[in-house]
Specification:
Rossmann fold, binds zinc ion, 11% strand, five-stranded parallel sheet, alpha/beta
């Protein structure tokens, strides 16, 4: 059975990715990060999702990106609220974590070598998050090329490692439909950048607003808000 590393944040997109990998027949190895983010609801969600979708393994790598800060997710910077679609669509948001996907994919690459995986699934999306430079297809292609130069298996030519981005051109509503069709349970997921002390989504950050818009466009209620 082919193995896949699935980067899992516990949100809608990575949950859909894991469900798709499983549906394609991969034995899945879910990988989450405790990177010094300001809340841990997402790690709890990731663990629930990995269990629900039958991941063969669930690992949390600890890497402290607070060493550099520079993002509202890793430093004491306010998370923007109530931004319009136009505001979200222009510029690179303060919730961008510098080089995050490069760092995450590098860890996934190391894990892939160890377990002999030939695919890495990452839920990047170039539609809703067009402001994130490390969500672009050009970045993913470049990383995949590098990965096959960097690894033992790449040199020995047994298998080619592929970086799979099944969501990259989908809208949020399309991602929701894809995930549901693949067996995802979105009631287990968490997307908010700035949850309340009780762990509830704030309903006002970019991530909450995009999630709400996605469910509205999909014609569905968000089961995590029930
Ligand atoms: Zn929020």
């Amino acid at each position: 059975m082919s193995r896949a590393i699935c980067l899992l944040s516990g949100g809608l997109d990575s949950t859909t990715c894991l469900a798709v990998a499983r549906q394609e027949g991969f034995e899945t190895y879910a990988l989450s990060f405790d990177y010094g983010q300001r809340h841990h609801q997402e790690l709890a969600a990731a663990e629930r999702v990995a269990a629900h979708l039958g991941a063969h393994a669930f690992r949390v790598a600890h890497i402290d990106l607070r060493a550099f800060g520079g993002s509202a997710l890793t430093a004491e910077i306010d998370v923007p609220k109530h931004r319009s679609a136009a505001e979200m669509g222009s510029g690179i948001p303060i919730t961008y974590v510098p080089a995050r996907n490069t760092i995450f994919l590098s860890f996934a690459l190391a894990y892939a070598e160890v377990v002999g995986a030939d695919a890495i699934f990452i839920g990047v999306n170039a539609v809703d998050y067009s402001g994130y430079p490390d969500c672009r297809p050009e970045f993913i292609h470049a990383f995949e090329h590098m990965a096959n130069l960097a690894t033992k298996t790449g040199v020995e030519g047994h298998t080619k490692l592929t970086i799979r981005t099944p969501l990259i051109t989908l809208t949020k509503a399309e991602i929701i439909h894809l995930g549901l069709a693949a067996g995802a349970d979105f009631s287990l997921t968490h997307s908010c950048y700035d949850p309340t002390p009780a762990g509830r989504p704030c309903g006002q950050c970019d991530s909450c607003l995009l999630r709400a818009k996605g469910f509205a466009e999909a014609g569905l209620a968000d089961p995590a808000l029930a």
